[in-house]
């Protein structure tokens, strides 16, 4: 999963043997996939922006008129700002939780697992082997009011007498964290695994404490994996509505829930405006984040 | 060499900071491992719950609890209305999307790694962007397109297929590219030097060497397609895929059979991985 971000940087092409690999055959190979991406990714994105500017009084049956109705954005923000903010808060919290949980796991696999390394890696991707929705639904059971976890937490007074976990923001963030944690662990592992142990030995030889060695050697070298991992968990979490719908309550609705429902209800201009806003906000956040983390060459 | 440095480090630290760090260091080492294993438990428990619930005999439609043991779900997987129909739909879409995306993506990967041309970085960006787009945005863009070109009434199997090829495509390019980039171009040059033409070089040298990457990309595509809900749900019309069946069922009371399907999927995927691992070990052993 580290692949998408790391290999996206233009790798220098190997020397073209015999001059046979000119531009033309390259374009021919690129053509079918490129047309697909242009027709079904670039054109739709432009269409989405256009649709967000349609006159909202139209409908699917009567047809829409293009009126450059920028007001759609103001309206959708006015109605759905809380959901938008909530999406970013939940996604941010889940991403942070993924870092906190994913780092020890990736570190353990890279440095401490020994011959169990492959088994642990398979265990990391194992959740992918069953359906996303089915395994998200299983959290309804784990966090359920009558099950062991809630009973235990009530017994030790972490939860009140009638406290519960399911249908709370905690459940939504737990589900998001669970669902996207492998996307954090795998790139982190890929970065950590490549670290030359001699760097750490050199640090120790120069009287650095293990903590200093970790902070000044391991962490900077793990940064590419950390940045890739945060993007791969944050972006899908911010757009997700499955966890919020299955594990949350009406007060935990995220922007994805609203976009889906607006489309289902046929309010295309508002839904499109909200969708464009989500994408713009994500692009902006990612841009600032990648800038600040100093790993621009990643994207 | 590593023993020597390790000893040097130990004595260095021992003299510099005093004794008693040994057990602390041991605990620190194993603390990370223990924490890592706890996180793995967190990642594994839901799958175990799915397996457990496949034997559940729920007391009511809305029961989330394990109420009793039964084998009935396993003997009557197709019992719930539309469950198996949706599975067949998902399999068909998964296979066709895998075929399409793997073909288009492999060609693109070859172009990106083996050919020089203008506009490489634009092509790279075009391949990267779909992976960085949230599903709900990608799904709604496609829906906006379909509605604007007037096929809103024809949403279904084919529009789902178009969407699935789209979001699998970038992952195929990236996977195959990674494999190709690790391949020594001199192998192909050697074949050409020995008077193989381009066609022979491709089929006898490049393709067999890249094949594991293509296979991996195909498996990834299939699992992405089979599992997708958000994009599919926006572009499906009246068609019902397996994830959409689960979604619908979740609103009405969940039939325990979906856990049987989840368990079977898990076991099948696990066998594929194990067979692949054994195969590569045997090849490495030879």
From TrEMBL, chain A:
Q: Which residues form the ABC transmembrane type-1 domain?
A: 84-289
Where is this gene product found?
Cell membrane
Q: Which keywords annotate this record?
A: Cell membrane, Membrane, Transmembrane, Transmembrane helix, Transport
Q: Which Pfam families match?
A: BPD_transp_1
Give a yes or no for keyword Transport in this entry: yes
In the record, the note on similarity to other proteins reads: Belongs to the binding-protein-dependent transport system permease family. CysTW subfamily.
Q: What is this protein called?
A: ABC transporter permease
TrEMBL record, chain B:
Its localization reads: Cell membrane
Gene3D superfamilies, per database record? MetI-like
* Topology in membrane: Multi-pass membrane protein
Membrane-traversing stretches: 31-55, 93-113, 125-149, 155-180, 201-224, 257-276
Residue span, ABC transmembrane type-1 domain? 87-276
The main location class comes to membrane
Residue ranges of the region described as Disordered: 1-23
Tell me the Pfam families matching this sequence.
Answer: BPD_transp_1
Q: Where is the composition biased (Gly residues)?
A: 13-23
Which top-rank group of organisms is this from? Bacteria
Q: Does the keyword Transport apply?
A: yes
The UniProt keyword set, sorted, is: Cell membrane, Membrane, Transmembrane, Transmembrane helix, Transport
The entry sums up its family as follows: Belongs to the binding-protein-dependent transport system permease family. CysTW subfamily.
What name appears for this protein in its UniProt entry?
ABC transporter permease
Q: Which organism is it from?
A: Nocardioides cremeus
